[in-house]
Specification:
It is built from 17 helices and 10 strands. It has 386 residues and is of the alpha/beta class.
């Protein structure tokens, strides 16, 4: 017999204490800069000139309170679900038909990834359509404003997160059916939800197939698939140091990232630079990059966000043998990690019903090209019968 649980949903306002901001200012002022070797740009990592200018802007110009005000224009809430005090945005659509949708971020972004796209999905007046979405954007467990209520050290953190988010949508918010969209870590998380709850999850939309696809038997790959896999392997050898560290020694790294705002900024900026449809200053403003970094800094969740890499490596939730049966749409952007995969490669693990290849855009799709992504999501989800 199912036991009914009363969930206490609380309105939430982002308000970082003044003491945290004062401490940050002091740490930025006390930065001990190293003397970099004479190199060109980003060849050895984050460009030292770019980083010093970025930190100077952070210290002297960036206005967190102004960004905080912008973030708080959305309806934020917290609720205790399983092991977490879960933070989420819940914005309801105003169209004649409203589709509940769960938007899932990854690392090193945050719920802020969807800052631009939320109004495009909820407001039919501005975008002239009858179908809109009830948008739910959580901070994933261990990220940002979603804090652990107790010591959590389970294996398969992705499956645990999927359980928490499924309960949020069904038990807490009361949706009997919904759809999911995600990128980066949000992609395999969406696929996990679809595999575990196909009776409730009507469809998913992802911007990359997820890293577990790389585990397919290479002897079965076509020439086109092999070329894509080899390209991905080469790119990982050039850019995958972050993943190797986070998958093996995350705690060793976390001490410095949690203690030094410059170290944290450097580590996160490195990924944004190499994963965007650059240059980085074209894809993101300094205020946008710093707002995302501040979410990690002010909540001290960088350690818990990268710890999941090791847990998931030890006991992976998804493998190449898993298959998503629910209808799946893909919006693929050319500058995403590894580029655009062959459709046949993706069809090995998901039921592809919608496939769009865009001419521009990088890894942080909802952030870089929100108009393109919003329109494509609507096109796909409007075909799903509820």
């Amino acid at each position: 017999m199912k036991t009914e649980i009363a969930y206490n949903i609380q309105p939430f306002t982002i308000s970082i204490p003044d003491a945290v901001l004062s401490d940050l200012q002091q740490r930025l002022s006390d930065t001990r800069w190293m003397t970099p070797i004479k190199t060109t740009g980003w060849d050895y990592g984050v460009d030292p000139e770019y980083l010093q200018e970025f930190i100077l802007y952070w210290k002297n110009t960036f206005d967190w309170r102004a960004q905080e005000k912008k973030l708080n224009r959305f309806k934020h809430f917290t609720v205790e679900v399983e092991d977490y005090s879960l933070h989420f945005i819940h914005e309801k659509g105003t169209g004649a038909v409203r589709i509940p949708i769960l938007l899932l971020h990854g690392w090193p972004d945050s719920f802020y990834r969807f800052n631009k796209i939320i109004p495009m999905l909820t407001d039919p007046v501005d975008h002239q359509r009858d179908i809109t979405f009830d948008v739910v954007v959580p901070s994933l467990p261990g990220f940002g404003f979603t804090k652990s209520l107790r010591e959590v050290n389970q294996q398969q953190p992705m499956r645990h997160s999927a359980s928490v988010l499924f309960n949020l949508m069904t038990e807490v918010l009361g949706y009997s059916q919904f759809v999911v969209a995600g990128g980066d870590g949000g992609s395999p998380l969406a696929q996990t939800l679809a595999i575990d709850h196909p009776e409730v999850l009507k469809a998913i939309y992802i911007t990359d197939p997820g890293w577990h696809v790389q585990g397919v038997d290479k002897s079965t790959l076509s020439k086109k698939e092999k070329k894509y896999a080899e390209k991905g392997q080469k790119e990982f050898m050039q850019q995958g140091a972050y993943a190797m560290i986070q998958s093996t020694r995350p705690q060793t790294l976390a001490y410095s990232l949690n203690d030094s705002p410059v170290a944290l900024a450097s580590w996160i900026l490195d990924r944004f630079y190499f994963w965007c449809d650059g240059p980085i200053e074209k894809s993101f403003t300094q205020d946008e990059l710093l707002t995302n970094i501040m979410i990690y800094w002010s909540t001290q969740t960088i350690a818990s966000s990268i710890r999941a890499y090791k847990m998931e490596t030890v006991s992976p939730t998804l493998t190449a043998k898993d298959y998503v049966k629910v209808p799946t749409g893909l919006g693929l952007f050319p500058k995403d990690i590894g580029g655009i995969p062959p459709r046949e490669f993706v069809e090995r693990t998901v039921n592809v019903q919608h496939w769009t290849e865009f001419e521009r855009g990088g890894h942080f799709t909802a952030w870089e090209e929100p108009e393109l992504m919003a329109a494509d999501m609507l096109k796909f989800f409007s075909t799903i019968k509820f």
